[in-house]
């Protein structure tokens, strides 16, 4: 039975590595997969999913106006497809998460989404909020804070290396811009949590 999965974490936890390994496992058994990634994240190049440890794969890109159900239905018509993989799933719109759920329900295709849960301000991304609500299975990809506790939050660093407390929700970057922290150290870096 097909399911909608959401693998979530903070920055630099290895979500893309997990995605690429899972896709490889399908391909190694002779099963075709369909890889999608957000068009706005070009850190690894346009249409490429890459991990910090050096592995990568070509993927089709999606933007917020794409109908992902239609794209997946067309992909299925072109030949066998065992699983759909979506990287940078936090950038999905609410409508696109419903389209992915429909692909699971109506096309009987498993969809595995990988993305951030919260932004640098501790707020859910719209795509992540919808995935948390609609997914059949939630799986946390864990990483650690510098103190050794589980990292659940992320800070965005300014040019001076200090945590930013304001700015747009989306700003593409990697290790040079973002640091994953436990909630306690995130609160320290942010000068206490909003509303505290």
Automatic annotation (TrEMBL):
<feature type="binding site">
    <location>
        <begin position="9"/>
        <end position="16"/>
    </location>
    <ligand>
        <name>ATP</name>
    </ligand>
</feature>
<keyword id="KW-0237">DNA synthesis</keyword>
<dbReference type="GO" id="GO:0005524">
    <property type="term" value="F:ATP binding"/>
</dbReference>
<feature type="binding site">
    <location>
        <position position="145"/>
    </location>
    <ligand>
        <name>Zn(2+)</name>
    </ligand>
</feature>
<keyword id="KW-0479">Metal-binding</keyword>
<feature type="binding site">
    <location>
        <position position="178"/>
    </location>
    <ligand>
        <name>substrate</name>
    </ligand>
</feature>
<dbReference type="GO" id="GO:0005829">
    <property type="term" value="C:cytosol"/>
</dbReference>
<keyword id="KW-0418">Kinase</keyword>
<dbReference type="InterPro" id="IPR001267">
    <property type="entry name" value="Thymidine_kinase"/>
</dbReference>
<keyword id="KW-0547">Nucleotide-binding</keyword>
<dbReference type="GO" id="GO:0046104">
    <property type="term" value="P:thymidine metabolic process"/>
</dbReference>
<feature type="active site" description="Proton acceptor">
    <location>
        <position position="88"/>
    </location>
</feature>
<comment type="subunit">
    <text>Homotetramer.</text>
</comment>
<dbReference type="InterPro" id="IPR020633">
    <property type="entry name" value="Thymidine_kinase_CS"/>
</dbReference>
<dbReference type="InterPro" id="IPR027417">
    <property type="entry name" value="P-loop_NTPase"/>
</dbReference>
<keyword id="KW-0862">Zinc</keyword>
<dbReference type="GO" id="GO:0071897">
    <property type="term" value="P:DNA biosynthetic process"/>
</dbReference>
<dbReference type="GO" id="GO:0004797">
    <property type="term" value="F:thymidine kinase activity"/>
</dbReference>
<comment type="similarity">
    <text>Belongs to the thymidine kinase family.</text>
</comment>
<protein>
    <recommendedName>
        <fullName>Thymidine kinase</fullName>
        <ecNumber>2.7.1.21</ecNumber>
    </recommendedName>
</protein>
<dbReference type="GO" id="GO:0008270">
    <property type="term" value="F:zinc ion binding"/>
</dbReference>
<feature type="binding site">
    <location>
        <begin position="170"/>
        <end position="173"/>
    </location>
    <ligand>
        <name>substrate</name>
    </ligand>
</feature>
<feature type="binding site">
    <location>
        <position position="182"/>
    </location>
    <ligand>
        <name>Zn(2+)</name>
    </ligand>
</feature>
<feature type="binding site">
    <location>
        <begin position="87"/>
        <end position="90"/>
    </location>
    <ligand>
        <name>ATP</name>
    </ligand>
</feature>
<keyword id="KW-0963">Cytoplasm</keyword>
<feature type="binding site">
    <location>
        <position position="147"/>
    </location>
    <ligand>
        <name>Zn(2+)</name>
    </ligand>
</feature>
<keyword id="KW-0808">Transferase</keyword>
<feature type="binding site">
    <location>
        <position position="185"/>
    </location>
    <ligand>
        <name>Zn(2+)</name>
    </ligand>
</feature>
<dbReference type="Pfam" id="PF00265">
    <property type="entry name" value="TK"/>
</dbReference>
<keyword id="KW-0067">ATP-binding</keyword>
């Amino acid at each position: 039975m097909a399911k909608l999965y959401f693998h979530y974490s903070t920055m630099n936890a290895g979500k893309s590595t997990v995605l690429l390994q899972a896709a490889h496992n399908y391909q190694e058994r002779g099963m075709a997969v369909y890889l999608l990634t957000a068009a706005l994240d070009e850190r690894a190049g346009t249409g490429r999913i890459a991990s910090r440890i050096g592995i990568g794969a070509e993927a089709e890109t999606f933007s917020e106006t794409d109908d992902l159900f239609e794209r997946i239905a067309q992909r299925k018509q072109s030949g066998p497809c065992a699983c759909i993989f979506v990287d940078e799933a936090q950038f999905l719109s609410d409508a696109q998460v419903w389209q992915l759920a429909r692909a699971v329900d109506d096309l009987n295709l498993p969809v595995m989404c990988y993305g951030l849960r919260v932004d640098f301000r501790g707020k859910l991304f719209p795509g992540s909020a919808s995935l948390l609500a609609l997914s059949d299975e939630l799986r946390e990809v864990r990483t650690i804070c510098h103190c050794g506790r589980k990292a659940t939050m992320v800070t965005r660093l300014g040019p001076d290396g200090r945590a930013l407390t304001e700015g747009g929700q989306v700003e593409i970057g990697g290790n040079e811009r973002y640091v994953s922290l436990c909630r306690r150290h995130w609160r320290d870096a942010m000068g206490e949590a909003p509303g505290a």
